[in-house]
Amino acid sequence: MSKARNKNYDASAVKKLGDLEAILKNPGMYVGDNEHHGLFTLWRELIDNSLDEYMAGHGGEIIITLSKKGEVKVVDNGRGIPIEWKPEVKMSALTLVLTKMHAGGKFDDEDSAGYEGKQKRGLHGAGAKAAVAFAKYFHVEIRRHGLAFRQSYEKVGTPLTPVEICMVDGKSRKKIGEINAETHLVLDKRGIAVALDVKGKKTPLTADATLGTGTTVEFLPERSLFSSTMEWGDTPPWNIEGMEEFLFQMSCLNPGLKFVFTVDGKQKTFFSKNGLLDYLGKFTTGKTLMHDEPINFHKEIHVDLPDGKATIGMDTVVHYAGDDAPNLHAFANTLYNKDGGTHAKGFRDGWAEALRRLAQQKKRKEDFKTEDLFVGMNAVLSVNGTQRLQFNSQTKAALTSPEFAKAIKDMTLEVMESYFKKPKNQQIGLTIIDAAIAVSHARDEIKMARDVAVKKSLLDAGGGIALSKLSDITRRAGQPVIPLELTALYLCEGDSAAGTMKNGRDSRFHAIYALRGKTENIWTKSLKRALEFAEYSAIATAIGAKVGPEFDLDAMRYGRVTITTDADHDGSHIRVLLITFFYKFMRPMIEEGRLFIARPPLFRVRSKKNGEAVYVYSEQERDQESATFGGADKVDVQRFKGLGEMNDSQMAETVLWLPPEVRVRKNVTAIQDLNLAMITRNEIRVDADDAKESERTLQLLMGDDAAPRRKWLMSLPWHVEAE
Fold first, then answer.
1. Is 50 exceeded by the pLDDT of residue 618?
2. For residue 168, is pLDDT > 90?
3. Pick the CATH number of 277-441 from 1.20.1260.10, 3.40.50.2000, 3.30.300.330, 3.30.230.10
4. Average pLDDT over residues 25-39
5. The dihedral of CA 12, 17, 21, 26: what is its sign?
6. Under CATH, which architecture does the 19-170+211-270 domain have?
7. pLDDT band at 394 (very low <50, low <70, confident <90, very high)
8. What is the pLDDT of residue 117?
9. Distance from chain centroid for Cα 421
């Protein structure tokens, strides 16, 4: 029986959060999380508002600047957010847009002030508000009517400043009033302010008719509102590479729009003339292509929806290359949907049906599966809809609007059937079909993958098979003695390091597999050829979840796989090779976040005075910790050039870290309190983007096309100064 509590559950227990407070309480709902992903989402939301203006036909340049102190500044030349007073909510339109949930200019499809009949990125009315919620400060300036309108927001809970009305003289701003219920602007026919009306008293003013329109925001995130586990130095840990990828992506989806991106004074411009073709080229460059020209088409139709008519359009580019796994990038109203959605399903269904009809027409034997038709496909699908789109979350990872599945399927089927009527295009279709048949005929290769599964079963059952390089976790009847998600298979570089890891491990948690030097490059190899290499076959056997199309995530013998290599060029090379193997043949493991990279320390800094020691991961951290102990002459610094230089206890304190109480074997409660985040604090999770980068690196260095490799080699700084 539960114990009675003194507090009564009555109306006083029911609370209503403020709009911005709700965002901070539920970051996963609005920005994904309050860590690196969420920080990037906040930056992207600022860009999205400017993109919506461009897609509505206003502006042509977006300028993004990251200052040395980490502040983001975004300037566009759209129309500028409306600033007028809204008596029904007793605040300006600008304040409403930036502080109240589900408020914006994109909700009324019949009269949305220039967004009607247009595709829109921002749809949930939460984006910019999330940046305001997480801000240390958020400054906004609107240029309209020849004037500047400014407002500042600081940490949630700080009183709002009013919207200031300012005269503009170059870079200077002179306040001449505030937006409130008693203040109105008098405009001429051009929309330029000619007087300020306060309580009926009009004061003439001379606005700058050449000022133009647009919005400027300045945003600095508040450190205390983000996870304490984030590495956050003097500036926020902005993902510069991710930002550049996003801007390249958006320039290709919005040809003609220019992005100017400046970081620490260094400027890059992103501008595309060829749109989706430029984006597709990023994934096909250097690959062996199955047909000369990409398939490229545009189509749109009108559909009837419960709340009225809408236009759905699609732009698609497709190029087949080799026998790689399908690589489909789907966008809806230029928003990247990493998990696809109804538009991606419709496209695949229509594409497969068109190829099946061609196969029947040309009497090709249909001994292939539908998924075989997509092997080697590289495609970009960009759809747009004038209706309000539905997504699975505020982060818009997948489109869920049901009408897109049939609309996109019908359009794809219609366009491709017409495309295949031309003899040249028909031959492209037959090449794709023949490749699918070849994939089907190669299914005997899967026998080797099944042999891996048989070996795994024998391994668990003790049926006479053993992997000489594997030191497995403790098992009973083939099953881990602790929860599976807490176990790991460490793929360790070299026998010396593996020996140290074995001595420093807790065998309930840690399995160690000693790699035999560098693994083979299987970038251009089939599954059959990859498994002919003993190292890959043994790794697959140890993981025990089959490989290739039959990979079964639920059958993994470990909660995760962790690549453990030295922090040098050879170690990096081994990591790239292994990640590529997993990406090609065990991709769901990466997509589900079950592949990690160990982060061994570079230095151990020990105080000469009291023996206290800390492990650090960079020269900068080494110098900082040395200073903490009194300076370089007050410490002993041990440099770990490789994993093999660490002793058992050092390995247990870093790479194989567990809470001390967990290593006490009888302390069952301590294990129950563990979670994955705790025991992987010295590991880095590999995501799909990391894997794709490894794939691109191998394609550059080892692909068939020498031109990109030659260009890259010539770009290297070959001059080496004598020591």
1. yes
2. yes
3. 3.30.230.10
4. 84
5. positive
6. 2-Layer Sandwich (3.30)
7. low
8. 45
9. 40
Domain 467-600+684-702 has CATH 3.10.410.10: no
**C-alpha count within 13 angstroms, C-beta hemisphere, residue 370:** 9
pLDDT for 325 equals 83
Express each pLDDT in 347-389 by its tens digit.
Answer: 999 999 999 999 999 988 777 889 999 999 999 999 999 888 8
Q: Where are the alpha helices (DSSP H) in 388-494?
A: 403-419, 423-441, 446-461
Q: In what order do the strands lie in the sheet with 61-66?
A: 172-178, 164-169, 147-154, 135-144, 214-221, 72-76, 61-66, 258-263, 266-270
User: How wide is the angle at C-alpha 447 spanned by C-alphas 353 and 476, nearest 5°?
Assistant: 115
Measured distance between the N- and C-terminal CA atoms of the chain, rounded to whole angstroms: 77
Give the tens place of pLDDT for each residue, 287-306.
Answer: 889 998 999 999 999 999 88
pLDDT at 152: 94
Token reading at 24: 């901070």
pLDDT confidence of residue 720: 40
Q: What is the pTM of this model?
A: 0.61
Residue 572 CA from chain centroid, whole number: 22
Task: Burial-class residue 466 by CB neighbours within 10 Å (0-12, 13-18, 19+).
Answer: exposed
646 CA to centre of own chain: 35
Question: Which tokens hold the place of 545?
Answer: 């979840």
Q: Flag whether pLDDT at 714 surpasses 90.
A: no
What CA–CA distances, in Å, run from 183 to 175, 404, 517?
14, 46, 75
**Where in the chain do CATH 3.30.565.10 domains reside?**
19-170+211-270
What residues does CATH 3.40.50.670 cover in the chain? 467-600+684-702
Per the listing, tokens 């038709």 go with 373
Identify which of 102, 133, 137 has the alpha carbon closest to the alpha carbon of residue 23. Answer: 133
Q: Is 630 left (phi over 0), alpha (psi -120 to 50) or beta?
A: left
Count of residues in the chain: 723
3-state secondary structure of 656: coil
Cα radius of gyration rounded to whole Å, the chain: 30
Q: Where are the alpha helices (DSSP H) in 149-209?
A: none
Whether the predicted pLDDT of 112 surpasses 50? no
- Give, as one character, the DSSP assignment of residue 473: P
Residues 6+ apart with CB under 8 A from 179: 83, 84, 85, 92, 94, 149, 162, 163, 165
According to DSSP, the β-strands at 147-154 and 164-169 are antiparallel
Average pLDDT, the chain: 86
AA identity, residue 721: E
The pLDDT of residue 312 is 95
Return the axis-axis angle of helices 446-461 and 534-543, rounded to nearest 10°.
Answer: 60
- Beta strand ranges found along 147-257 (DSSP E): 147-154, 164-169, 172-178, 183-187, 193-198, 201-204, 214-221
Picking from 146-150, 160-164, 207-211, 515-519, which range would have the lowest pLDDT averaged per residue?
Answer: 515-519
List of residues 6+ apart from 627 with CB closer than 8 A: none
Mean of pLDDT values over 575-593: 90
Residues 6+ apart with CB under 8 A from 210: none
Q: Token digits for 393?
A: 């979350």
pLDDT tens digits, residue range 553-562? 999 999 999 9
Name the token pair of 188.
């001429």
